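Key result, reporting period 2: structure in, sequence out.
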């Protein structure tokens, strides 16, 4: 009996340890974006859904997902929102997060918003820059950019710069997800959040576009790993050489979804487990420890988000 109880305790400990880690998956959806995150408390997050429903649907079904606690649309471009339609049809979505940007050239983003409003027990949120999202008490999830005020535009740059940018911070490591934010937004975030951008992992903005991932921004983020979500032989030439060169110069290991879904793990505190990239221990030889991280949650109250947004709108590339 004692032997049985000991084995049972070991199994429970193993399950608890796995649940307490933070896992992120950058799903291979072709030329588009979809990021799935499993939180330490057992909750889950889907950021964007790619250009079609099949890849993200098959990924989620293979993982046995039936419910998604938080679905985020970074901005209303079809390579980010189309796949979410199938997500709303096939899964129980509890919360939906959106910008207030309206793409004049698209109808699909409005269809998605209608699906969210019709989803039973689903609440729609319009987060504001500077806000902390209460998704897991052990993980700081901070909104670094969005359009919380209505914007009607057909300008792709304006829509891209409304992207919801999120930073997940857990056990001493950050994951920065950037949507398609361009250099002007990167500059504005540097002015506002100071050292609060530092992140071990960077989901590279705009599929590796030359118009994002500036030298100054990368110097502030200090990524050890950069993940690019991109499609083979895409019409935009992503990822651009200029962005790749800057990422390399910043000392980041570069991964992309051309070879399949990319994954990473941040372990629970004091578990004695290394950071993992695609099930491999992440120990880059050239890594130099970053300066001590300074928490920035109190740099600016969420009530000041309108002023923050004004800074973002006024920002210009340096």
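The corresponding designed sequence is given below.
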């Amino acid at each position: 009996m004692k032997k049985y109880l000991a084995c049972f305790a070991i199994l429970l400990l193993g399950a608890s340890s796995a649940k307490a880690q933070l896992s992120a998956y950058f799903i291979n959806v072709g030329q588009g974006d979809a990021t799935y995150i499993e939180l330490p408390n057992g909750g889950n997050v889907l950021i964007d859904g790619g250009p079609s429903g099949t890849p993200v649907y098959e990924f989620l079904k293979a993982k046995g997902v039936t419910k998604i606690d938080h679905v985020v649309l970074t901005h209303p471009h079809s390579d980010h929102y189309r796949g979410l339609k199938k997500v709303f049809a096939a899964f129980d979505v509890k919360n939906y997060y959106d910008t207030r940007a309206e793409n004049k050239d698209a109808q699909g983003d409005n269809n998605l918003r209608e699906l969210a409003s019709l989803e039973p027990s689903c609440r729609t949120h319009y987060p504001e820059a500077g806000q902390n999202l209460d998704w897991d008490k052990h993980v700081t999830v901070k909104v670094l950019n969005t359009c919380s005020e209505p914007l009607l535009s057909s300008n792709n740059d304006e829509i891209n710069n409304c992207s919801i940018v999120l930073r997940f911070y857990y056990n001493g490591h950050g994951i920065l997800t950037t949507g398609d934010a361009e250099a002007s937004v990167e500059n504005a975030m540097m002015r506002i959040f100071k050292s609060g951008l530092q992140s071990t992992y960077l989901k590279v903005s705009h599929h590796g576009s030359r118009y994002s991932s500036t030298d100054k921004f990368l110097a502030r983020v200090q990524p050890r790993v950069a993940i690019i979500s991109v499609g083979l032989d895409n019409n935009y030439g992503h990822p651009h050489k200029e962005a790749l060169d800057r990422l390399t110069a910043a000392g980041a290991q570069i991964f992309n979804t051309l070879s399949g879904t990319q994954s990473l793990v941040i372990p629970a505190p004091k578990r004695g487990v290394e950071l993992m990239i695609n099930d491999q221990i992440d120990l880059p030889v050239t890594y130099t420890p970053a300066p001590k991280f300074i928490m920035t949650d109190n740099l600016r109250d969420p009530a000041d988000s309108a002023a923050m947004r004004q800074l973002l709108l006024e920002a210009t590339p340096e």
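The chain has one domain: 22-313. Residues 57 and 81 are 13 Å apart (CA to CA). This case is discussed further under Risks and Mitigation.
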